[in-house]
Design a protein that fits this description.
The complex is a heterodimer.
Chain A (H helix, E strand, L loop, with lengths): L27 H16 L6 E3 L10 E8 L3 E11 L9 E6 L10 E4 L13 H4 L2 E5 L16 E2 L7 E8 L3 E9 L7
Antiparallel strand pairs in A: 1-9, 2-8, 3-6, 3-7, 3-9, 4-5, 4-8
Chain B lengths: L13 H5 L8 H14 L5 E4 L10 E6 L8 E10 L5 E9 L10 E9 L6 E10 L6 E6 L7 E10 L31 H17 L2 E7 L18 E2 L3 E4 L6 E12 L8 E6 L6 E4 L5 E9 L1 E2 L7 E9 L7 E10 L5
Antiparallel strand pairs in B: 1-8, 2-7, 3-6, 3-8, 4-5, 4-7, 9-18, 10-17, 11-17, 12-15, 12-18, 13-14, 13-17, 16-17
Helix pairs in contact in B: 2-3
The chains are: A mainly beta, B mainly beta.
Chain lengths: 189, 342
């Protein structure tokens, strides 16, 4: 079994040669370190881009499709959703979200509760540009075969090369995705 | 002698690494993984969810700044849009410039072709593959034509590196492909310390030269959906905040922030502000609405959601101001993360 080594590049000397870092250089750990640098880079999740966009002020934008590049070894993810109050969607109770890997219909749709409602008196207009907003994180539960549409982690394809995951989010003013689980044993990748 | 580039990352077992055989592997496999990185490390150059005109019956133009790889790589773009009618032809063009200057910009075409819309109201996805984005490119322009029938709503574009298999030679970034010639004669060949160092050197070069788009906002170039023209002058009014995730990194990370904004007259200084929210004494950067690409560096103090290193994040806010009696036309803002820069 080989687990992922989460490398923090901010704590590394990226300019130093491997052969300057160990003594004596013939240690077998040097070989493992060399291998680790390439594997760690390959499976390191890409940063979760903060997408700022108008998904509130027009009906056609309430449904937003995105394609997100996913690095190898990812299993699950969660999303940060920026949201604001808007009169046209004041009756909505959830953000709907899906990934193509997890399924886009029926019980596979992820329902993230919507808390900003008209009764809270958030400034209503113009919503996207100047209204009050909050950031919510989607659910942490892993339910890959849901029997009802619920707030759960996003399913991703676990691959040995990067790929683009098709995603959908409704009623958002911002969206970003964080890899929250990677494959437990790299040897099974 | 060949430069083998595996299609997926190769994993040596723990036992292979710690009790290695007197054989080409596992070092050969590690070096081939360096080749893999050169071809398959594909963080987005741009991941932009458009703020445009919903159900648009005209063409739309989006312009945003970019920080492409110094290696002059091939890139591919994947577009997402929705048309109200099926099988509509939408021509999509991508242009680049090394000096954005508004209407005076000289644009160079990178790729152009025609997409056919999916079923009415359904998501259309269209890929434009393998066009070179030069290291000197500072902005991209994306143009969508109007569908002949019905309307079009632009959703998202992702542009990512798509280089071919590495070839012999050192890349400008410092990445070096591995040719198995010195190991091809069988087991027992000498191992050069350079082989070991090359694994790290190439990994770092690839990571740092392919900067990752970590913040994006873009509205149409001239059909401004949001115009800073009526609010009180000399105050920064924000767009919604959004969270950038920087897994396993920190405690601080410095990102590059690029913006394009202009004015209808008057002062241009410091009209765009980008800052981190939710931490004490966070930093702000201010950029001018000069009409060109403006750049700054913003240092972020990272937090963790639930103590998870994978869920390391910063909340960012873009805000725009205007001078008294003037309007500010804010086009786009992009952030770029470089691993290891704190």
């Amino acid at each position: 079994m080989r687990t992922i080594n989460p490398r923090n590049y901010n704590s590394e000397d990226l300019d130093a040669r491997l052969t300057d870092e160990v003594s004596p250089p013939a240690l077998v750990s040097l070989l493992a370190d060399a291998d680790s640098w390439t594997v760690d880079a390959a499976v390191a999740p890409y940063c979760g881009c903060a997408h700022v966009f108008d998904g509130l002020s027009a009906t056609a934008y309430e449904a937003r499709y995105l394609g997100l590049m996913v690095a190898p070894a990812a299993v699950h993810a969660r999303a940060a959703i920026s949201r604001g109050y808007y009169t046209l969607i004041g009756t909505a109770t959830t953000h709907d979200m899906w990934s193509s890997d997890g399924g886009a219909f029926g019980n596979d749709i992820i329902k993230v509760p919507w808390h900003m409602v008209a009764s809270l008196n958030y400034p209503a207009s113009p919503t996207f540009q100047f209204a009050q907003h909050s950031i919510a994180v989607s659910g942490g539960s892993i339910v890959d075969t849901p029997t009802t549409a619920t707030d759960r982690q996003i399913e991703l394809a676990t691959a040995g090369a990067p790929y683009i995951e098709s995603m959908y989010i409704s009623l958002a003013a911002g969206f970003s995705v964080c890899i929250t689980e990677q494959i437990a044993d790299l040897e099974t990748l | 002698m060949t430069i083998d580039t595996p299609a997926t990352i190769q994993i040596s077992s723990e036992s292979d690494l710690w009790v290695p055989a007197m054989a080409q592997d596992p070092l050969k496999k590690a070096l081939q993984n360096a080749n893999y990185l050169m071809r398959w490390h594909r963080p987005p150059l741009a991941s932009v969810a458009y703020t445009g005109t919903a159900e648009d019956t005209t063409s739309a133009v989006y312009v945003f700044p970019v920080l492409p790889s110094i290696d002059g790589l091939l890139y591919s773009a994947v577009h997402r849009f929705v048309c109200s009618a099926a099988t509509q032809a939408v021509t999509i063009e991508i242009d680049e410039t090394s000096n954005y200057a508004g209407g005076a910009t000289t644009w160079n075409g990178l790729t152009s072709d025609t997409a056919t819309s999916a079923a009415a109201g359904a998501l259309s996805t269209h890929t434009q593959a393998d066009f070179v984005v030069a290291a000197t490119t500072e902005a991209l322009r994306i143009t969508y034509t109007a569908p002949p029938v019905g309307n079009r709503t632009d959703h998202h574009i992702v542009i990512h590196p798509s280089p071919g298999a590495p070839v012999v030679g050192i890349m400008p970034s410092g990445a070096v492909p591995f040719d198995d010639g010195l190991m091809a004669d069988g087991d027992g060949s000498p191992i050069h310390t350079e082989f070991l160092n090359r694994c790290k050197r190439t990994a770092v070069a690839v990571l740092q030269s392919r900067k990752q788009n970590c913040l994006s906002f873009c509205q149409e170039e001239s059909a401004y959906r949001y115009l800073w023209d009526a609010k009180a002058a000399s105050k920064h009014y924000p767009l919604p905040p959004c969270r950038v995730w920087l897994p396993n990194q920190g405690p601080t990370v410095t990102i590059d922030v690029l913006a394009i904004a202009t004015v209808d007259g008057g002062a241009t200084t410091d009209l765009v502000r980008v800052r981190q929210l939710g931490v004490p004494s966070s930093l702000s950067v201010f950029l001018d609405a000069s009409g060109g690409v403006e750049a700054a560096e913003l240092t972020l103090k990272l937090k963790k959601e639930g103590g998870s290193a994978l869920m390391t994040y910063a909340d960012l806010e873009i805000a725009v101001s205007r001078a008294a009696g003037q309007e500010t036309r804010f086009l786009s803002c992009m952030g770029y993360y470089t691993p290891g820069v704190d």
